[in-house]
Design a protein that fits this description.
Number of strands: 11
Structural class: mainly beta
Strand content: over 45%
Order of helices and strands: EEEEEEEEEEE
Distance between the termini: 40 Å
Largest sheet: 7 strands, mixed
Number of helices: 0
Length: about 120
Amino acid sequence: QVQLVESGGGLVQPGGSLRLSCVASGSIASIYNLGWYRQAPGNERELVASTTTGLTTNYYSDSVKGRFTISRDNAKNTVYLQMDNLKVEDTAVYLCYYNTWGRAPSWGPGTQVTVSS
């Protein structure tokens, strides 16, 4: 089992930036994918960005490509999501997730990001 705790959400104006952090604890060695989903009210949960153990390329959804950057610090068991040029439509609960090889994802409790003027 892996436990995930997110931080860094908040209120920001359009065009602003935020950096989310997610600290993983527990069976860290079992993690295959580690990254971020988001869910806005009335919408399905959307995979935003992801890293894969052993790979150098990361995944980004089309809606955030070029604006968000995911990074992973294995020494700190932490994954970050740098979000720049934020838009109102980025408003959502952002959930850190992981999965092990061939398994469904598991999520942390989430952190709220609100983009509003």
